[in-house]
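Q: What would this chain look like folded?
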Amino acid sequence: MAAVNNALVVGSGLAGMATAVHLASRGVAVDLVEIEPDVPALGSGITLPGNALRELRGLGVWEQARRKGYAFDVTGLRAPDPAGTVVAEFPDAKSGGPDLPAVMGMPRPDLARILAGRAAEAGAEVRFGTTVAELTQDAAGVDTTFSDGSTGRYDVVVGADGIRSWTRRVLGIGLETRPVGMGIWRASGPRPAGVTRTDLYYGGPCYIAGYCPTGEDSLYAYIVEGAQDRSGLSPQQQLATMKRLSEAYHGPWDAIRETLTDPSRINYTHFQTHLLDAPWNRGRVVLIGDAAHTCPPTLAQGGAMALEDAAVLAELLIEHDAVDQRLWDAFAARRYDRTKAVVDASNQLAQWQLDHEHGDVPSLVRRIAELVSQPA
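A: My prediction, written as C-alpha cells:
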C-alpha cells in the first residue's frame, strides 16, 4: 500500500508538474496549484542534457518533447575573434543512455505545455491562479487553506514553488540565496541554418556568449556578463544593450544579431545559488527543485535535477507504506549528495570564470557526467 492516498503540489514548474504526473499516474489523487493564471506562453529556451531526457521518457512525454525540440551530440568552442573561429569540438556525454541524444534544446513554454497536458491526462487536478494561503500539519496530514478560500487535507504537501518558495518560508526555513556575481542576457528567436548545436564563446567583453537550437525554426541565445543593476533599462534599452554586447562575437552570432529586433523576447537575470541541507522535509511537507537547490546553468543541470527530485520522491511515496522517517531518510540519501555535487561543480565553473582562472574544466565536467549517467 502506498504511503499516500492524496497529495498537494505547489508550483507548476518542472519539479511540480513531474511530481503530479508520477503520482497521479500511480493512482494518487493529486491537486496542483499555481499562482500564475495559466501555463506560461512566453520564455526563452532550455538546454536538456541526456539525464533530463531520460526523465522525460519516464514521464511518458519524450516523443512529444523530441518533436518540439532540437537534439545534438556535439558542442563547439569558438574564439571571440572576427571570424568566430571554431577552436574545439567535443562530443557531449550521453548521460541518458546510448539510445537518447546527448543534449536537446527546446522552448520552455512548449515543455511546460507538454507536462501540463500529461498531468491532466494522468488525472491530476491542476488549478491556475490559485496558491496556498495557510498550512497546518499534524502527525496524520496537512490541512490547507487556499487563496480562493477553499480548503483541503493532504497526506503530503510538495513545495515545488521555485527559488523564492512560499512553502519554504512558511516552514520557517531561513535558506540564504546568494548572488553568484554574474548576470545573463537571454533572447529567443529564429534559428539561422548554421546553428545546429550549442557553441560557446569564452572571453571578449563578457564571460560567455552562446546559443542553443530549440527547434527547426527557433533558438535561444545568451550572453553572460558580470552582474549589474539593469533594472532601470526600458525594454528597448535592454534590446540595444544585448545587441551591443553581442557585437564582439561573430560566426553564427552575426546572423543571430540581425534577428534581435523584439524587446519582448529579451530578459536579464542574475545567477543565484543555494542548497538546503538535508532533510528537505519538515514533517509531511517537503521541498524539491529550485525551492531546495539552485545554481548557475554552467552545467545545464538545473532542470534535470528538478525532474530527478520528482521521480525519486514519487517512487518512495508509492513504494513505502508510511510517511515516516525511513521515507525521508531514503529521499535524502538518494538526492542530497548527488545534488550537492552538481551545485558545487556548477558554482566552481562560474567562480573560475569570475577569477579568470584556468581550472580543470574537462575533469570536472567528466566527473559530473559520470555521476548523472547513473539513474537517480
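The mean pLDDT is 97.
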